[in-house]
Design a protein that fits this description.
By secondary structure, this protein is mostly helical. The chain is 80% helix and 0% strand. α1 crosses α5.
Length: 415
């Protein structure tokens, strides 16, 4: 059965974005795969890490092509594109996901610890996918169980946009603002403290071509311990980055804001946006084949919970603003999400800075700050999980499922 032949420009635009994104992902995956193969035989670089990256980009390409297929159904006017999407979640999957993640992390940890290049090159890419992706499935299932997700083409369109246009906008804005901060800081230092600027220039020359991390930390140690430098780093990571990401992570929810039927569906679409972004970020950030692999891969599960919870809240706020004219609810949800994200980032960057304390002459940081920061992240993680589950319980009791009018309107050619 086919709908009217009316051109659906929204789906066509998404197909163009997805096609360009899939091409970039394919090219990147191919280049990384060839590079990892060469480094494996020449025993240079990190062949396992590069192959993890190749698998990650390849997997994202497959997901993006899957999204494009469902969106294409809408472009072609197929009625099934507007059928309600039902996420295949069941309680038994909770145990399956936990078992898969723990077993994969344990096996990968042993492989990474052995530091056998060819073994890590073969197995770590697959194990990375098994550690990163199942928690996303589980969290989305728990957060959206019982909530109407709307037409399937829109669900997959949101996934695709959250893996392409959303991250691109965020990366560009974050880089521009970071460069602005660096340029503004350089101008201020050059005017007020010219001798310090000359010192920075000499430091830059000394660091040119230097690859030894101990030497680099030794040279930069006096500057990294400066309270103003630490405050600037934490301010950027914990304030500016969350402000940008929490606004643009649910980009697709903004795009479909007038079509979302309820705040509950807005929450579900926000969780979906956060999960798709987490997939993009976590897979790309896990391309490390060293002995640090189990820590890096496992920590990404925590960031997935962060992104899905905060984006879910913002999605709920967006839908509330458009459907119920509750503008203040949006701002409350947005700044709550920014605060949660900011605290998490502050703890994470604080842990990173403290971990190099011994190398920069501040060994007390390792014992004074890291336990508290890790404890804070742990408590915050539990809190986010509770918020995710509680939001689902609350919203499923007030949400109204209205799939029939949606399909009838679409059959008449109206989006």
């Amino acid at each position: 059965m086919i709908q009217t032949n009316k051109t659906h420009w929204a789906s066509i635009s998404m197909l163009l974005v997805f096609g360009l994104g899939a091409s970039v992902l394919l090219m990147t995956s191919f280049v990384l795969g060839i590079s990892s193969l060469i480094n494996l035989f020449t025993e240079k670089g990190d062949p396992a890490g590069e192959m993890i990256g190749s698998f990650a980009f390849g997997f994202q390409m497959v997901v993006l092509l899957l999204c494009a297929w469902f969106v294409l159904q809408k472009t072609m006017g197929k009625v099934r594109a507007d059928l309600p999407f039902v996420f295949p979640f069941a309680n038994w999957q909770i145990f399956a996901v936990i078992a898969t993640m723990v077993l994969s992390a344990a096996i990968g940890g042993v492989i990474a610890y052995t530091e056998i290049p060819w073994l890590g090159w073969i197995l770590l890419p697959v194990l990375t996918l098994l550690v990163i992706t199942p928690p996303l499935w589980l969290l989305f299932g728990l957060a959206t169980n019982g909530i109407d997700l709307g037409p399937r083409w829109r669900v997959f369109g949101i996934i695709g946009l959250s893996m392409t246009a959303g991250p691109l906008i965020m990366i560009i804005l974050e880089i521009v603002l970071l460069l602005g901060i660096i340029i503004a800081g350089s101008i201020i230092i050059a005017i007020q403290r010219p001798l310090l600027m000359q010192e920075f220039i000499r430091l830059g020359r000394m660091l040119e071509g230097e690859t030894n991390p101990d030497v680099i930390l030794g040279l930069m140690g006096p500057y990294l311990t400066n309270p103003l430098v630490i405050a600037t780093i934490i301010g950027y990571i914990a304030v500016i980055v969350p402000l940008i990401e929490e606004l643009f992570k649910p980009l697709a929810v903004w795009v479909f804001a007038t079509k979302i039927e309820s705040p509950a569906q807005g929450f579900a679409m926000g969780v979906l946006s956060g999960g798709a972004f987490a997939l993009f970020e976590s897979l790309n950030a896990s391309a490390d084949g060293s002995s640090s692999w189990p820590v890096i891969a496992s920590v990404r599960a925590g960031t997935s919970l962060l992104h899905m919870t905060t984006s879910g809240l913002v999605g709920w706020g967006i839908a509330s603003a458009f459907r119920e004219k509750r503008i203040l609810r949006f701002f409350a949800a947005y700044f709550t999400s920014v605060s949660i994200h900011g605290i998490w980032n502050a703890c994470a960057i604080g842990t990173g800075i403290s971990s190099i304390g011994e190398s920069i002459g501040k060994p007390e940081w390792l014992f004074n700050y890291i336990p508290a920061l890790l404890g804070g992240m742990f408590v915050l993680g539990i809190g986010m999980f509770v918020v995710l589950i509680a939001s689902n319980r609350k919203l499923t009791t007030v949400s109204a499922v209205v799939p029939v009018p949606q399909i009838e309107k679409n059959e008449e050619g109206v989006q």
